[in-house]
Amino acid sequence: MLTFIQRPFDLMSSNSGISPDYLKLVFSWLLSYPLAGLLKCIPDSRPDHKNIFSICVSVFYLLGLFDLWEGFQTLFISAAGIYCISKFLRHSSLMPWIGFMFVMAHLSVNHIYRQIAGDPATVDVTGAQMVLVMKLSAFCWNVADGQLPEDRLTNFQKARRLRELPALLDYAGYVLFFPALFAGPTFEFAEYRRWLDTSMFELPPNIEESKKPPVRRKGKIPRSSTPAFSKALTGLIWIALFVPMSARYDVVRLFGSSFTDGVFLQRLWILHCVGFTARIKYYGAWSLAEGACILTGMGYNGVDPGTGKVSWNRLQNIDPWGVEFASNVRGYLGSWNMNTNQWLRNYVYLRVTPRGKKPGFLASFITFTTSALWHGFYPGYYLSFILASFLQTVAKNFRRNIRPFFLDPISGLPTPQKRYYDIVSVLVTQAAMSFAVAPFLILRFYHSVLVWSQVYFYVIFGVVLSMAFFASPGKQLLKQRLDARQKKTGVQLSRALSQDSISAQQPVLGVVADPAGELDKALQELHRRS
What is the residue-wise DSSP string for 77-138? Predict the structure, then answer.
């Protein structure tokens, strides 16, 4: 580490109370903007220069800014190991599984070291390694897909397959793409290659000349400074909000007298504010990182032929509005860490499902386990994941059996009373998730249960009572009343209900949807086979 770089961060840390490493993270994201502008100035005809520039910046971040020599070695081992596995085993059907186990095992070792060190304020390489695990495991599957015949591939696989291994320089540039080094967002090598050779920016032939987006000089990458700096401003606002909020609503607040001595509603408010404070740190980080990626052109997601408007949401990782005002658990989780959701779905959930079969309990369980291990080994993670899986089940039951009463039985449109249902849904979802995510922040089992006890385990009791109700004749009574209501009009809302059923089959952050129903199916299948 360069001493003259470290001193300003130590000074700012002493004045603000924020750890020097977090300040350096913010600095690295801000520095990525002018550096992304320089990267974009490199001629499109010199992709090798783009790779070298990106690699050099990432090496500076790792070694010059954070002094992560062992961290650099860790990333090298993961990347080199996956390249060798893909090269020498690419004709084996086990290759992607071997690669997946290799990077997950390597990450698990570092998670254990970090947990033993017990200093969450210090930046180590596990954050960057978690991002790299997603990129490298997807890379293995892309190489494996490149060895398969056309008729065995989906359109998603065809667009991302790699028939040949990339050159080492291209691969290193993909691994060490500096705007996404520490916190993502993630993307796949096929996308990186299309960005590198600028084929990503080829316009459809039917687009009018007046609708073509402006580009810089003779390049193909559309101008992206406005959306990029809009993301930067958004990220800085979140960080500016985080600084005072973190001083007032740090996790330690949950163990102070203002929490333990307060009335129930006061405790509930503090619990929610602590979770919100933790979230806005990520809102700021992910917004800044995404903006830097947009500035390089990597966030490009096509042009609307009708309006000529460019979409820059290819790498969107967070929807704060979708989280903070979610009306159900699935919407809450689906708006959080969206890249991880996609990785779990495309490279775990669907990959463990045999071809021609529908995903079942085993696919959900493996996805849940992968997501949990990917996060680490703190007991709090598992408390949050397990509870969230049951919350999804309860929320789905309410949506299927209660929500139709607030829809017009003829048109399926919301009734005037639907707004009250939505308001209650938002409040209940936020209160439930504030309780569920608390262990994710506290990490320790005993302390998590202690905080839960201070709010009387209200979500756990709610889940038990709700599941008991929907397993009782009460559910049948609701169904009869709904059927009677709809028979009066001769119309049924089966399409809306079936859509809910379909959407509930996809995992969100590895949280198992409908664990009880899937488990029943699995047990029935085992019984038939025996």
Answer: HHHHHHHHHHHHSTTSTTHHHHHHHHHHHHHHHHHHHHHHHT-TTS--SHHHHHHHHHHHHH
